[in-house]
Design brief:
It is a single chain. This protein is an alpha+beta fold and about 475 residues long. Helices cover about 35% and strands about 15% of the residues. The chain contains 20 helices and 15 strands. The chain has a six-stranded mixed β-sheet. Strands 8, 9, 12, 13 and 14 form a five-stranded mixed β-sheet that branches. A two-stranded antiparallel sheet has the order 1-2. The termini are far apart.
Length: about 475
Amino acid sequence: MRKFKRAMALTLVTAMAAASFVGCSKNSSSGSAAANNATKEVVTDASGKEVPLRDQIAAKKYDSEGKVLNIYVWNDEFINRVADHFPGYEKVDATNGKIGDVSVKFTKVDNQDNKYQTNLDQTLQDNGDNQENADADKKIDIFLVEADYALKYVNSKYTTKLADLGITDADLPNQYQYTKDAVTDSEGNLKGISWQGCPGLLIYRRDIAKEVLGTDDPSEVQKSVADWDKFADTAKMMAAKNYKMTSSVNDTYRVYSNNVSSKWVVDGKINIDDNIMKWVDDSKELVDAGETGTYDMWSDDWKKGFYPEGNVFCYFGPAWLIDFSMHCDEKGSVGYDGGWAVTEGPQGFFWGGTWICAAAGTDNQELVKDLMLCLTTDEETMTQIVEKDHDFVNNSKVMEAKATDSSFGDKYLSNQNPVGLFCNGIKTVSLANISGYDQGCNEEFQNAMKDYFDGNYKTYEDALDAFYTKVIVKYPELKKPE
């Protein structure tokens, strides 16, 4: 890593106005009403040469800010990103480190059974409602959110506008618009930021494709799964050879639900979109024909398809599912010897992603800003993340370069370079119909339909009534449709 002396003279030079700077990028639509006319500052050395962001950060001590940076997470992913890619981070142990004079403390609370949100909510409330009395070294400075519940936090008083940290549209010209939409509050203020984009693809077994379809070439396999009718026809071919098309109906749910034309709640009433209904109809046919199962996501039965004896043709997911969740580094798994490949599938979709939010009242504003900018906008850092971690990063310029890099590939995909397919897929992602009710409605709907598919409800209408009941208990302000 290039270094420069802190004593070196730095000169702030104001760059061109954000309006003209941002206008060069198709991904640059505003994510913050307060930052539309902001300018971007460029730091240069004594010779007038621009100083890379990583070098600026490496020179800082952050000695004028809070002594502890508290970060709330639900797993090790963000801890590893900070440890591996933020300049000057020194690891102390699994959940503690140092950046200059600041101690970094990660509080990790498991996501299962909503434990993470429950713990986070209580801590934010305690700190937020007792600002004057709260211990500065224990207050949350950063916390992470997912798309399914991001609006709950960005529309609250517990998150800080990025514009108030000094992050403007001019800093974000290459970020994918949907990643900004997910964390934009009702007044148009951007209140979170992500290093990831999570477009999804159909992930299929090469050996099964060769046996049943006669080829494992992604462009040829795509012809057999290009829409849901072709997908269903291929499922019959798979069943004839004793293979499941997917491990579970839940594998396809997010693909359908990402392509709805209306929200879960319309005028205070629960609304079931036509594409969600299509998932029910299509899934029922697959289950009744024995072409898929009804396993819960992440269950041991669902994961059996990660191994050859599981006899599952395909899963749906983003880059992180392949490299971090399909046991591909485990000898004997399908991925260990490069047994998977990817293609577009019937519809584009996204799954997951992690957004960084600055907690209101943080006393580490400069460090929070630098961490956000380094991990989510710096091209050198983001290229490192792609190459080391195989993340699809939130930077169109970096990803488009990787899409044409013939030396880049994923060993779990027999060195197929999936980036071009992911780049095409992310163009279709829209959060136009996202709402604060998404997590609860999606979870309860899948639970009710599982019981329907398994025969625990005699009719779809019975399952639907159970769904309405559970959702209204969770969200008393909602009503059933007439």
